[in-house]
Amino acid sequence: MTATKKRSWTEAVRERAVGALPPEKLLPDSQPSYMSSWIYIFGVLSLGSLVVIIASGSILSLKGPQWWHFTGIGHFFNSIHLWSVELFFFFMAIHLWGKYWMAAWRGGRARVWMTGVVCFVVAIPCALTGYVSQQNFDAQWISTQAKDAMNAAGIGAFFNLTNFGQMYSVHVLLLPLAVVAIVVAHILLVRKHGIVPPIPLAGVGEGRSLAGAGDSPAGPAGHESGSGSGLPASGDGSMKTPGSGSGDDREPGPDPAGSPT
Amino acid sequence: MTAAVFNLNHPANTVHWHFFTMSVANVVVIIVMLVVFAAAVLLPFPGHGRRRGNR
Q: Is residue A160 in some structural domain?
């Protein structure tokens, strides 16, 4: 009779984490060749904007409203914070369109899609609480208008948009934490399941699509279309990717023609 | 203090079309987003043709 060694919880967590995301998946040194398209850059552009938002917002929170309203450098960081938010939503919306039209939830990527949707939804009140935390007439106007909208929607009892302290706390702590946590989950899920391949086009060649389906034993690996985008140019949107629509976790294997990142 | 590039000292211009009402600034941003999206889909990615030729 052999004595079984009791596993510690840290060991169990480590084994589960490494099993789900081995280092070569977490930090890959190449990406599939179908990523050679501009449509694939809007996720990382959104991420870059978020980094600037967090950095500029941290400086604003350290210095306070007097600084951002009455000093030149304060105006500068205020503007950096505003425009990085504008760009964040700009890039995130285009990222959303691109992923919607390439049905990015295929191949067991439902959680990747849903974390992206939730991130978008949580980012909206994060921006709203920022607009009402400016401490100027613009903030007053927005908060009184938004208050009516919240009351009309039946959720006005849970928070007070005209309360600067409450809105500022929510804006600089709770919602940014939520957005960052969701973005981290989103990126880890993308690493786990891989970047979604283009949709193969139906009726193009013999078992071959314009998007290069059949180039890789595990799924479409590269573009043959002129545009090089991940979107189908025609066809009925039928999916030939292994695991598509089945809800399983299978995904395209490493692309032999992968391009270095 | 330097003046804004555009004169902002007036109420926002809006686009009205039946039930649809939106500020011109928002309409411009949406059009720019659509243009950027179309460009991202249609424009070739640098180095894409070279890698394809090597395969």
A: yes
Range of the domain at A181: 85-193
pLDDT of A38-93, one tens digit each?
A: 999 999 999 999 999 999 999 999 999 999 999 999 999 999 999 999 999 999 99
Helix, coil or strand: residue A4? coil
> What pTM was estimated for this model as a whole?
0.77
Would you say residue A141 lies in a domain?
yes
Distance from the Cα of A34 to chain B's closest Cα (Å) equals 9
ipTM rounded to 2 decimals: 0.81
Same domain, A148 and A178: yes
| A257 contacts B51? CB cut-off 8 A | yes
Helices (H) and strands (E) in chain A, counts: 9, 2
C-alpha–C-alpha distance, residues A219 and A243, integer Å: 10
Spatial distance between the Cα atoms of B45 and A199, rounded to a whole number of angstroms: 18
Question: Is B44's CB within 8 Å of A226's CB?
Answer: yes
Same domain, A93 and A189: yes
In a shared domain, residues A205 and A188: no
Condensed to tens digits (0 to 9), the pLDDT of residues A114-159 reads: 999 999 999 999 999 999 999 999 999 999 999 999 999 999 899 8
Domain count, chain A: 2
Cβ contact, residue pair B36, A39, below 8 Å: no
Evaluate whether A250 touches A217 at the Cβ level (below 8 Å): no
- Cβ of A96: how many Cβ atoms within 10 Å? 19
Within a domain: A1: no
